From TrEMBL, chain A:
Residues 31-166, 198-260 form the Exoribonuclease phosphorolytic domain. GO terms for molecular function: mRNA 3'-UTR AU-rich region binding. One of its GO terms (biological process) is rRNA catabolic process. This is Ribosomal RNA-processing protein 42. Gene3D superfamilies: GHMP Kinase, N-terminal domain. It is found in: Cytoplasm; Nucleus, Nucleolus. InterPro entries: ExoRNase_PH_dom1, ExoRNase_PH_dom2, ExoRNase_PH_dom2_sf, Exosome_comp_Rrp42_subfam, PNPase/RNase_PH_dom_sf, Ribosomal_Su5_D2-typ_SF. It comes from Ladona fulva.
Automatic annotation (TrEMBL), chain B:
GO terms for biological process: CUT catabolic process; exonucleolytic trimming to generate mature 3'-end of 5.8S rRNA from tricistronic rRNA transcript (SSU-rRNA, 5.8S rRNA, LSU-rRNA); nuclear polyadenylation-dependent rRNA catabolic process; poly(A)-dependent snoRNA 3'-end processing; regulation of gene expression; TRAMP-dependent tRNA surveillance pathway; U4 snRNA 3'-end processing. SUPFAM superfamilies: Eukaryotic type KH-domain (KH-domain type I), Nucleic acid-binding proteins, Ribosomal L27 protein-like. Its main location: nucleus. GO terms for molecular function: RNA binding. Belongs to the RRP4 family. This is S1 motif domain-containing protein. It comes from Ladona fulva (Scarce chaser dragonfly). Transmembrane segments: none annotated.
Length: 291, 298
């Protein structure tokens, strides 16, 4: 990823700040910046959400489509992640510049959602071995202000929470041809259970200590970071080490501990926010980007 | 709903940054909007002629001087003027010059001949100096400088021929809209609270711990003390200043020494990290606004 250019003196300042547990904006090492979530923001997607984490802006849309299940997993639906790094976010994403980062994010998400205790793909099955729902999760990175992974995972979880899968009125097989009848009522839909879906927590090692939710400047001071996928119950589903630095065993264990406890907190806060959003009902005012 | 470390808000409870304005809001033109039906005006910045109409090419406010019509954009890059104090970041080292990012459309130039080299005022710049350029300033370094000249294409030529300009050491850089910086006689301030700020006309603001000039010889050097640790008190003051300036900028309030000091004082009831919350930011901006207003009346 494109790193911000910083002078040595600025880096020293950030480093000492992290050491003293008082960062440039007054946060402690384990404090997140205020996050804002909005669901139901793209009207022609089945589910959508936008997350703003200080200067990081992420828009996620979910599309549902009917597909045939893979032969090895006939009882499961499909879930696909696609990340698009807009060149609006940083000029480094121009052309194919953002591709590597995009693949990294989508691979991490697919790995995190793969586990069956995390997300029930069987609920997306229509006719075993014949038809299933496929969810296309499209992630658009609009602005890049540090800590992309965490923001993306929050947005993905909110968008899947918001996704409305049409109910199937009847499904029959007639001589090998599948006949599906979707419900006529647009308000007749099923929602997906995301209560055990993970969020990603990135711990960035700056100097000897690790911080969460780094700003773009802080990311430039770090050599290595660890991304954890943590569920609400505190289970760590996936880990990913980014950057070229190395980690000591003790540091890693310490990071896992901190990350897990923060992941639980994140999941709780997101759940509360999503409930609040849902309580507003169908006709809530859309804020989007303009206000 | 406020968790200890994580705080997730929902959009409909969003705080909108508005401070009361005493003047009526001017009419804002959007790009492509017709300004006047007759093309009998002189076309200037932010406008173009399309058929019989004069149209706006940027979003902004119409200004008119006799037959000259232009649109002053709401948001724009920095347009330099001679004598402006700017803060910039070196992006490239070239032969005889550095390229500096100053938030303008084009990178600015800092010629090796328009800076004070270490070791005396009157010294010829030799070939050796040119070879040592990266020793003085390298990519990523921050400098404060003054605009010496503006070229035809709008790019700037900078100089640092005064002891108050030069390489910046430890501190925090902020970026705001250039239009928010109020033009003053002095853009270098040593605030009472224990930090110094440089309000660059280009919208780059530098916050640093106050340096005792008598002991350490001014900011205009090229020496950096990377071993020095900024004390906790100074760090807190700097972080608070940073958040206050961002709070004012979010409410589109103009930035100068008085407004910043007032915001700093009004923010004391909050913890530094609480100032990241939109609601508290607005509160600080409003309090500052009222204090400035009441002062203007008396």
């Amino acid at each position: 990823m494109a790193l911000k250019l910083l002078s040595d003196a600025e880096k020293v300042f950030i480093l000492h700040g992290v050491k003293d547990d008082f960062r440039c904006d007054g946060r402690t090492r384990q404090e997140y910046r205020p996050i804002e979530v909005e669901t139901e923001i793209v009207s022609n997607a089945s589910g959508s959400a936008r997350v703003r984490l200080a200067n990081t802006d992420i828009l996620v849309g979910v599309k549902t489509e009917i597909d045939t299940p893979s032969p090895t997993k006939p009882n499961e639906g499909k879930l696909e992640f696609f990340v698009d790094c807009s060149a609006n976010a940083t000029p480094a994403f121009e052309g194919r510049g953002g591709e590597e980062l995009a693949t990294e994010i989508s691979n991490t998400l697919s790995k995190a959602y793969l586990c069956e205790t995390v997300f029930d793909l069987q609920s997306l099955c229509i006719l075993p071995g014949q038809q299933c729902w496929k969810l296309y999760v499209d992630i658009l990175i609009l602005e890049c202000g540090g800590n992309l992974f965490d923001g993306v995972s929050l947005a993905v979880k909110s968008a899947i929470y918001n996704t409305k899968v049409p109910r199937i009125a009847s499904a029959t097989i007639d001589g090998g041809v599948v006949d599906l009848q979707l419900s006529d009522d647009p308000y007749d839909f099923q929602t997906l259970d995301v209560s055990s879906a993970p969020v990603l927590v990135t711990l960035t090692k700056i100097g000897e200590r690790c911080v969460v939710d780094p700003t773009a400047e802080e990311e430039a001071c770090s050599l290595v970071s660890v991304v954890l996928a943590v569920t609400e119950k505190g289970r760590c589903v996936t880990t990913l080490v980014r950057g070229e630095g190395s980690l000591h065993e003790d540091t890693l264990i310490d990071m896992l501990k901190v990350g897990t406890s923060l992941g639980i907190e994140m999941n709780k806060a997101l759940k509360a926010a999503l409930k609040l959003e849902q309580s507003k009902g169908e006709n809530k005012e859309r804020f989007g980007f303009l206000k | 709903m406020m968790a200890e470390n994580v705080c997730i808000n929902v959009a409909y409870q969003r705080t909108t940054f508005t401070v009361p304005i005493s003047q009526p809001t001017p009419r804002i033109y959007t790009p492509g909007e017709v300004i006047s039906p007759h093309a009998g005006f002189i076309v200037s910045h932010g406008t173009y002629i399309d058929g019989d109409y004069l149209k706006a090419s940027v979003a902004g406010v119409k200004e008119q001087v006799d037959k000259l019509v232009y649109v002053r954009p709401l948001k724009n890059r920095y347009n330099g003027e001679i004598g402006d104090v700017v803060v910039g970041r070196v992006t490239e080292v070239q032969q005889k010059r550095w390229k500096v990012d100053t938030n303008s459309r084009l990178d600015s130039n800092l010629l090796i001949s328009s800076m004070n080299l270490p070791g005396g005022e009157l010294r010829r710049r030799s070939v050796e100096d040119e070879k040592m350029m990266r020793k003085f300033l390298q990519e990523g370094d921050l400098i404060s400088a003054e605009v010496q000249n503006v070229f035809d294409d709008g790019s700037l030529s900078l100089h640092t021929r005064s002891l108050k300009y030069g390489k910046l050491s430890q501190g925090i850089l902020l970026t705001v809209f250039p239009s928010l910086i109020r033009r003053r006689k002095n853009h270098f301030h040593d605030l009472h609270c224990g930090a110094s700020i440089i309000l660059g006309n280009n919208g780059f603001i530098w916050i640093s711990p106050t340096i005792n000039t008598e002991v350490e010889g001014g900011a205009g050097g090229f020496t950096q003390n990377l071993d020095k640790e900024v004390s906790m008190e100074e760090r807190e003051v700097m972080a608070r200043l940073r958040n206050c300036i961002l709070a004012l900028a979010a409410s589109k309030m103009s930035l100068y020494d008085t407004s910043i000091v007032y915001a700093f004082e009004e923010s004391q009831k909050y913890k530094v990290s609480e100032l990241l919350d939109a609601e508290n930011m607005l509160d600080v901006a409003l309090m500052t606004y009222h204090r400035l207003e009441s002062q203007e009346e008396t």
